[in-house]
Design brief:
Blueprint (H helix, E strand, L loop, with lengths): L6 E4 L5 H8 L13 H7 L3 E6 L2 E11 L3 E8 L8 H4 L3
Antiparallel strand pairs: 1-2, 2-3, 3-4
Helix pairs in contact: 1-2
Length: about 90
């Protein structure tokens, strides 16, 4: 796996399992709440994913809360040492 994602794309329902797995290490730290693959599948339109080939190595979501506030989170696969698509250029 490369150290930088190659593409950032809107998530599809097919990415739900991988996104849910990305959440797991962050749940015990209280950074995110656990979400099942089914819940992520329902919410997939709110996510972008970073792909290295066909492998999801990161995800970001933006949710509207009470029509006024926004909540975001960025997750990455622990083996991805640096995120830097903005500095290295993406396809």
């Amino acid at each position: 796996m490369n150290s930088l994602p190659r593409r950032i794309v809107p998530a599809s329902a097919d990415h739900a399992e991988a996104i849910a797995e990305l959440l797991v290490p962050y749940v015990p730290q209280g950074i995110v709440l656990p979400r099942s693959p089914e819940e992520v599948r329902r919410l997939h339109a709110d996510f972008l994913v970073a792909l290295d080939g066909a492998t999801v190595v990161g995800a970001v979501a933006l949710f509207a809360v009470d029509q006024m506030a926004e909540s975001t989170f960025l997750l990455k696969e622990p083996s991805v040492v640096r995120s830097g698509c903005l500095t290295s250029g993406c396809d």
